[in-house]
Design goal:
mainly alpha; 42% helix
Length: 320
């Protein structure tokens, strides 16, 4: 017993004699404090598939919208692709002239000039502009509409209003109202259509485009770690053909599985039929990524793409 007591006493003295250099590691309080995923690590193809599947569900709506923009803005002038789809060069707008919808009234906006700018624009709005609408990303979507009754008389009556909806570069602004007779919009030839929805996201090209999305769309609060993992994944794929092959495989698998699941989901179908695919709901729902992905597949008229921090599917306050 005495030996044991002497040993304990010696150990106690040892601990007391050694200065304490250990300090509590600071606890992360904001995303910037969290170490991002490391690049250059050896990544197993099956692990890459796990992260890749999440990246595909997360990024599908934005790749969808990015490819839409790339195709639509190739138009040489505002018009209708194959006589149907409104298209225009970037910074301009193409219009139909015979549909039913409503815009402006829910937001009590007044007629006039509005300036849509990107996140880095630092200029001054010229005199005569009602308001500046700032998009937090360089990808923004505006879909103007005019309310009317479904009658021949009302269709004719709204034409002058529709003709006043025009978008053009700021350099062309002169304070005067510009008009376009949208009933005479030119038909711009394009690829032959099968009659179905254009597959804007091509699985085997998805991971080639994901980096562009990450660069163009900043992370929402809390998504920083996702971005870090996705960038590490793309870095590994650029150095290892096996990883790239695994990602292409999982993209094709996820496209097939996710599309089938979204169309079989009765709860989702019910939600869509009740009109609950509003941008604010998509962005705040616990299954926001899944809903955004599925809504883009189920409601092609409302392509979902996050374009600001408040709303994943639209640039507020515009109606999608």
């Amino acid at each position: 017993m005495k030996t044991k007591h002497r040993l304990l006493a010696a150990l106690s003295g040892l601990f007391l004699a050694v200065p304490s250099f250990a300090q509590q590691v600071p606890i992360a309080t904001k995303p910037a404090d969290v170490t991002s995923a490391a690049h250059g690590v050896i990544m197993h193809p099956e692990y890459a598939k796990i992260i890749g599947r999440m990246a595909y569900v997360w990024g599908w709506p934005m790749v969808n919208q990015m490819n839409r923009r790339a195709a639509i803005t190739q138009a040489p002038e505002p018009g209708r692709l194959n006589g149907v789809l409104p298209v225009a060069p970037r910074g301009q707008v193409g219009m139909l002239n015979d549909y039913i919808a409503e815009i402006g009234k829910p937001y009590a906006s007044k007629p006039g000039f509005y300036l849509l700018v990107g996140p880095n624009w630092k200029g001054e709005a010229p005199t005569g502009v009602n308001a500046v609408i700032r998009s937090s990303t360089e990808l923004a979507n505006v879909i103007p509409r005019v309310f009317m009754d479904d009658t021949a008389e009302d269709r004719k009556a709204v034409q002058p209003l529709i003709n006043q909806i025009v978008a053009y570069p700021l350099k062309d602004f002169d304070g005067k109202t510009k008009t376009i007779d949208w009933s005479k919009a030119p038909a711009i030839p394009g690829q032959a259509s099968s009659g179905g929805e254009t597959p804007w996201v091509v699985p085997e090209k998805f991971f080639d485009q994901l980096g562009e999305v990450l660069d163009a769309v900043p992370p929402l609060p809390g998504e920083e770690s996702l971005y870090g993992n996705f960038r590490a994944l793309l870095d590994a794929a650029s150095k290892d053909p096996a990883i790239k092959k695994a990602l292409d495989e999982v993209a094709a698998e996820t496209e097939s599985d996710d599309t089938a699941a979204s169309r079989r989901n009765p709860a989702l179908k019910s939600t869509l039929l009740r009109g609950k695919n509003h941008c604010q709901i998509n962005s705040r729902a616990a299954l926001g990524y899944f809903l955004s992905n599925c809504l883009g597949k189920n409601t092609p008229a409302y392509p979902t793409a996050r374009s600001n921090r408040k709303c994943r599917t639209c640039q507020a306050p515009f109606y999608t």
